[in-house]
Backbone:
């Protein structure tokens, strides 16, 4: 019998390692890039894991593939379903298409049109709903009852958490001289929880970066009581969700802290990343570099692994001018 | 004695090969990326050479290093000078800084501010002038007379042409299954002329892509008379220059054709490249994909090597909304 981890959670590094093996044929092993200019600007040594270059344009392909490829054939045959503001929906649609099964995605009406178009391009059925967690969940429940489709939640799911952790796992394996800490955005908490399993295994500090206008993770961690409702107000459209229960438990135990940033800081960070790395990253990805700039005491002199979580933006609707 | 090439020009593939060896320590060997979506959209097999990820953000670092690193010490000691709307200036400033010599860059008043900031960041002296070729050249001549600085022209120079050709040389070496044709933007013609030396050596067709609002290369090739003055009107700020004399001679002999595209097509292409490749490319780089879309008869069914020439944009001044 395998030993359970000392932190007492359901998941540990072995789940992330197994996910990494399972999804290898279906995802990109994304590159890690560096910039001497950004290092000079921040006083830290920064390693950016390019999940904006991941299949379907975001790390979400990792969790989605990990879930879809472990479904028994008879479950898979009934198709999969989820609710998503965008990237998870596209990733699940893609994973289902790869395995040759159906997918239905419940999408809030305020979702990013580029992300919605991506979902459609992978052949999934799109069902629209009001932009609240309640509407999203009840929309899914209704379709599950009708069709028997299997729910793959966007973040509050062990398979998703383990899958999202594989980005950090690749990073700590690829960066030979080691890291001091890991920094990722936090929305529903799939990426942060998965990353923290890797950090715990390697003895690295792990931080989450979060928009001030959707700071439920910050408040949940501060009070010890999970915030389950908020009216998010942030340009970071991937981070408007509230923290899942499983995610909260893992984050509470393994994460060092949540660093909040303003939308102005996020947009400035996004411009720096575009200008220096020549990479298209979405606002949700830029909260990390914003946090590095805002909290120098956490990062200066450290070797920092950062996950650039996604690159799905609508070029016609960039937040640059709106805020500057 | 080395044989001169059969086409009767001063330059041939050996100059490009020598440049490639000379500049190797000072530039990036940039990656080649592909996109199954863009392939499906275009009906061609596209290979994008990422010179937007090149040092100083553009292929211009190749020619600039090739020129600077073959100067005799006593010439180099007096510093280098050029006129440039941006990328060549930044590239020359960087090359001079690397070699530890001075650089003066004469910059037209309408130059892209991001490119101007890049020049300054490499420690060069910036001198502003009116945005005409005459003003640029007379500005340079005056400073050369005063300081004895060595002129490194932006494109009408054998060292520059050979250096710019190294991007295509890397590409034909790296793409093991071969290519049918090469496609690059044309402004002053350094990149196109250098690329055509590689194409001639490998027996590949070579095309240039050019904005309709700065179509001097198209008209020069059509009439056989080099256009030396134009009032350019295009979002592609790197392509507003007119073709150099040496460049014209090489292009006339070795290039299959010049494909013109509108600014609307260029901006649409830039959005596609950003959205699908997740790479920041400047408008001057997007004329190539615009040409692929507009002239399917040239590209369909072919294996096409495309140089994404640069990624220096100002996030606050994107041309998206102006044109849509």
Residues:
């Amino acid at each position: 019998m395998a030993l359970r981890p000392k932190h007492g959670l359901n998941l540990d590094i072995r789940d992330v390692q197994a996910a990494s093996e399972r999804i290898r044929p279906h995802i990109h092993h994304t590159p890690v890039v560096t910039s001497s200019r950004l290092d000079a600007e921040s006083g830290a040594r920064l390693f950016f894991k390019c999940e904006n270059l991941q299949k379907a344009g975001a790390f979400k392909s990792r969790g989605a593939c990990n879930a879809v490829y472990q479904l028994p054939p008879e479950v898979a045959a009934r198709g999969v379903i989820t609710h998503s503001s965008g990237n998870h929906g596209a990733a699940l649609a893609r994973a289902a298409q790869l395995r040759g099964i159906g997918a239905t995605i419940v999408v809030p009406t305020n979702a990013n049109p580029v992300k919605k178009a991506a979902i459609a391009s992978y052949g999934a059925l799109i069902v629209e709903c009001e932009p609240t967690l309640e509407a999203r969940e009840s929309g899914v429940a209704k379709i599950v009852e009708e069709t028997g489709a299997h729910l793959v939640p966007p973040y509050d799911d062990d398979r998703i958490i383990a899958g999202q952790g594989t980005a950090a796992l690749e990073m700590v394996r690829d960066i030979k001289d080691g890291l001091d800490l890991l920094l990722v955005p936090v929305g529903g908490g799939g990426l942060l929880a998965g990353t923290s399993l890797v950090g715990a295994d390697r003895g690295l500090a792990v931080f989450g970066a979060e928009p001030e206008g959707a700071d439920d993770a910050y408040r949940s961690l501060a009070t010890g009581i999970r915030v389950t409702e908020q009216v998010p107000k942030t340009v970071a459209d991937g981070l408007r969700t509230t923290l899942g229960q499983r995610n909260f438990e893992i984050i509470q135990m393994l994460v060092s802290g949540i660093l909040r940033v303003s939308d102005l800081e996020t947009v400035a960070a996004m411009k720096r990343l575009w200008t220096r790395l020549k990479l298209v990253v979405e606002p949700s990805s830029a909260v990390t570099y914003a946090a590095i700039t805002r909290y120098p005491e956490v990062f200066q002199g450290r070797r920092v692994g950062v996950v650039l979580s996604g690159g799905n933006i609508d070029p016609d609707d960039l937040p640059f001018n709106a805020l500057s």
User: Anything to note?
Assistant: The first helix of chain B runs from residue 13 to 23.
